[in-house]
C-alpha cells in the first residue's frame, strides 16, 4: 500500500512560525526540510487564538519552502491553552454516555461553556475489567473551539492537511524520547523550553507519568537596553537583533537558575528514584541563556539542544551538525508525532 511518508511539524510561535519535515525511509527517519518565517507583527492574541488571515499569509510563504508532497501537518497548542484533567468513568458506558459524562465534568470546572470547547478523552488503563460496575481513570483534554479552528482554517486554506493537534509539552517529550534512543542514554534529562512569557519544564520519568510545569518567567522580562530608560521590552533572540550585553545575559541566566532550583525541589520530592542528571535547553533564546553559567549554578549539566542533528539529512540540505537550531525543538517533536499516526 502506497502512502505519503512525509510528516510536517509546524510550531506557531509568538515571533516566528517554524516547520520541520521528516521522511520515513524504511527503518530510519530522514530530515527532508526545515524552515522558519519571522513574524513582522503578532498573530496570536492573549486567548491563544490566531489571526487567520495573517497566519494564512505566513503559511503560504512557508509552504513554498517545503518539499513537494509535504502536506500532512501536526500542530501544537500551548499547554496553557488546554484544559487537562483526569476523571473517573464507569467502564460500562457507551461512547455517547461517556462523552456526556465528560461534558458534565468539564461543565462543572471549565471557565468556558462546554459548547465552546473541543474535547478529547481516552482511558488511562487498557486492561479488561472483571466487573461492569468498576470505574477507570480517563484523561480529558479540552480547548476553546476558536483557539483550534483559527489554526485549522489557515492550514487548510494554505493547501495543507492538518492531522493531529498536540500539546507543546508532548511534542518536546516525543523529541526527548528520540534523542535518548539515538544516543542510547538511560539517564533522566529534562527539557527546558525558554519562551517569551514563560518557561516550560518537562520530563518523562521511566515508568511514571509525564511531569510538566510552566514557570511564569520568560525573555519578555528583559529590558531593551538600546532604548533610553530601558522601559521597553523586547525579545532578544531573533536573528536580526544584536546579542544582549554580557551582564544582561548573566542576570537573566541567574534568574532562570533560581526558578529552576525551585522546580528541581518539587520534582525531586515526588520522583526521588528518578533524579535529574541534565538539562536540554530549547527555544529561540540562545543569545540570552548561557548554558555554561546555568550548569555551574545548578550543579548539573545543561546544554543547548540541536534537534535537527539527531536525524540523517537529505543531501540537498546544508550541514546542520553544528549551528543554532534549538528553536526547532517543538516542530521536530511534532513531525515525529505525525509519523506515529
TrEMBL record:
It comes from the Bacteria. This is Pilus assembly protein PilM. Gene3D superfamilies: 3.30.1490.300, 3.30.420.40.
Amino acid at each position: 500500500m502506497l502512502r505519503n511518508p512525509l510528516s510536517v511539524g509546524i510550531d506557531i510561535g509568538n515571533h516566528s512560525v517554524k516547520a520541520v519535515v521528516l521522511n520515513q525511509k524504511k527503518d530510519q527517519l530522514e530530515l527532508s526540510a526545515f524552515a522558519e518565517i519571522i513574524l513582522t507583527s503578532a498573530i496570536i492574541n492573549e486567548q491563544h487564538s490566531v489571526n487567520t488571515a495573517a497566519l494564512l499569509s505566513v503559511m503560504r510563504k512557508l509552504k513554498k519552502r517545503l518539499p513537494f508532497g509535504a502536506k500532512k501537518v501536526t500542530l501544537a497548542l500551548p499547554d496553557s491553552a488546554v484544559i487537562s484533567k483526569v476523571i473517573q468513568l464507569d467502564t460500562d458506558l457507551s461512547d455517547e454516555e461517556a462523552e456526556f459524562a465528560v461534558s458534565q465534568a468539564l461543565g462543572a470546572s471549565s471557565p468556558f461553556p462546554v459548547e465552546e470547547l473541543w474535547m478529547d478523552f481516552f482511558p488511562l488503563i487498557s486492561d479488561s475489567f472483571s466487573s461492569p460496575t468498576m470505574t477507570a481513570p480517563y484523561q480529558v483534554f479540552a480547548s476553546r473551539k476558536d483557539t483550534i479552528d483559527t489554526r485549522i482554517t489557515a492550514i487548510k486554506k494554505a493547501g495543507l492537511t492538518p492531522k493531529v493537534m498536540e500539546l507543546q509539552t508532548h511534542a518536546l517529550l516525543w523529541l526527548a524520547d528520540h534523542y535518548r534512543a539515538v544516543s542510547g542514554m538511560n539517564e533522566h534529562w529534562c527539557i527546558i523550553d525558554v519562551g517569551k512569557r514563560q518557561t516550560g519544564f518537562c520530563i518523562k520519568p521511566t515508568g511514571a507519568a509525564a511531569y510538566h510545569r510552566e514557570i511564569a518567567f520568560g525573555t519578555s522580562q528583559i529590558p531593551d537596553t538600546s532604548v533610553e530608560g530601558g522601559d521597553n521590552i523586547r525579545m532578544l533572540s531573533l536573528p536580526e537583533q544584536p546579542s544582549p550585553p554580557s551582564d544582561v545575559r548573566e542576570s537573566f541566566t541567574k534568574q532562570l537558575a533560581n526558578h529552576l532550583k525551585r522546580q528541581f525541589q518539587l520534582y525531586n520530592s515526588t520522583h526521588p528514584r528518578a533524579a535529574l542528571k541534565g538539562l536540554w535547553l530549547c527555544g529561540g533564546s540562545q543569545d540570552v541563556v548561557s548554558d555554561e553559567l546555568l550548569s555551574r549554578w545548578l550543579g548539573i549539566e545543561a546544554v543547548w539542544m540541536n534537534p535537527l542533528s539527531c536525524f540523517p539529512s537529505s543531501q540537498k540540505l546544508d550541514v546542520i551538525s553544528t549551528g543554532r537550531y534549538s528553536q526547532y525543538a517543538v516542530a521536530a517533536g511534532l513531525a515525529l508525532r505525525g509519523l506515529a499516526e
